[in-house]
Amino acid sequence: MTLEFSKYHGLGNDFILIDNRHQSQPLVSPEEVVKLCDRHFGVGADGVILVLQGQDGCDYTMRIFNSDGSEAQMCGNGIRCFARFVSQLEGKEEVSKTYRIKTLAGVICPTLMGNGQVRVDMGQPQLEAEKIPTTLGEAGKPVVNVPLSVNHQEYLVTCVSMGNPHCVIFVEDVNRIKLEEIGPLLETHPAFPQKTNVEFVQPVSRNHLKMRVWERGAGITLACGTGACATLVAAVLNNLCDRNATVQLPGGSLQIEWNPQDNHVYMTGPATKVFSGKIQAIN
């Protein structure tokens, strides 16, 4: 089988995008996703994104698989790349347009803005413990600044769902965090029945946050769009920043706004095409 694909990245968070519109089932299996994402023996990526036909009045359907083969509900950097890719498929890459995309986290609406920027209406954050989901805190209430013990150390965590779970921890210096050690322990902690993404965040000012991320199913990445959104929401809940701020990640910065009128979170950032190619077989 010859598989055609395009490679995109959002602030270094990179994806293999595949046109899957001609059939309802994924063209690749979870095992093949792992091989494609391998940076030595495959194409190399943090995940694989499939473009399927739209459902329920949406323009397209997005399915995304992490580099370990697990399926994610949503991906903020990924959906910006998705929007640029489908505009390429339509032959309208530089045309300003808003898409309605069906995801496992609901309908998400990215808008092409020119200059490679994409603005995404990420919807409303979920703050109730059971909707994140987490066993921390009380049912029906937000989980804000709650203690969590990991490896004999206590962390104060704030939990947010942006269609996928996030555990946000505020620190004085994100560069001092041994993310490769603590990240997997927090991701798989029993307090998170569906595992969790983990963000360590350093508040720089009322409109500037610095973040490092351990992604569920992918490990350390250069950027995480849903994580940046969850980070801003958590910072507002802890009165550490305003509702519109720059979130600085290792791969670059995103502009995040939590709009008080509609309670939606809006993310603006780049999506960049790297190359297109064909792979003859996935061995």
Commentary on this structure:
- The mean pLDDT is 96.
- The chain is globular and about 50 Å long.
- The chain has 2 domains: 3-123 and 270-279, Diaminopimelate Epimerase, Chain A, domain 1; 129-263, Diaminopimelate Epimerase, Chain A, domain 1 (Roll).
- Strand 11, helix 3 (179-187) and strand 12 form a beta-alpha-beta unit.
- It has helices spanning 30-37, 76-89, 179-187, 225-237, and strands at residues 3-10, 13-19, 47-53, 60-66, 71-72, 101-103, 106-114, 117-121, 143-150, 153-161, 165-170, 197-205, 208-215, 219-221, 244-249, 252-258, 265-270, 272-279.
- Helices cover 16% and strands 42% of the residues.
- The chain starts with a strand and ends with a strand.
- The chain has 283 residues and is α+β, with helices and mostly antiparallel strands.
- It has an 18-stranded mixed beta sheet that branches.
- The chain contains 4 helices and 18 strands.
